[in-house]
Design brief:
This protein is mainly α. It is built from 3 helices and 2 strands, in the order E-H-H-E-H. It has one domain. The protein is about 80% helix and about 5% strand.
Length: about 110
């Protein structure tokens, strides 16, 4: 019998990568992709553990889950930093910092 690919194994890997790449988008987009990847990875792991001889692609699931966990951690840290900046200096202070940085780099 031919092995089937685990459902969503490639999608889990792609979402794990996207969660890391989008960690600088205020932490929200990557957090969503990371959580979805973790949930899908848990479901795929349960399916695989019921009958491992029927499925291939488990390495994609494991790798995607690890990347998603890293992405969730990075996005959570970035989101906490953004919330801290907004709470301490406000939106106007952030805009002033951005303008000062742009002025210093000659942009």
């Amino acid at each position: 019998m031919e092995k089937q690919t685990l459902p969503n194994s490639t999608l889990i890997l792609v979402f794990g990568i996207i969660s890391i790449v989008t960690c600088c988008c205020y932490g929200i987009i990557g957090l969503v992709f990371g959580i979805i990847a973790i949930v899908l990875a848990n479901k795929a792991t349960k399916v695989y553990l019921q009958s491992p001889e029927l499925y291939s692609g488990y390495t994609n699931v494991k790798t995607g889950k690890i990347l998603a966990i890293i992405g969730v951690i990075l996005n959570a840290i970035y989101l906490i930093i953004v919330i801290f900046y907004i709470a301490t200096i406000g939106f106007i202070g952030i805009e002033e910092l951005q303008q000062e940085i742009l002025k210093n780099y000659g942009m």
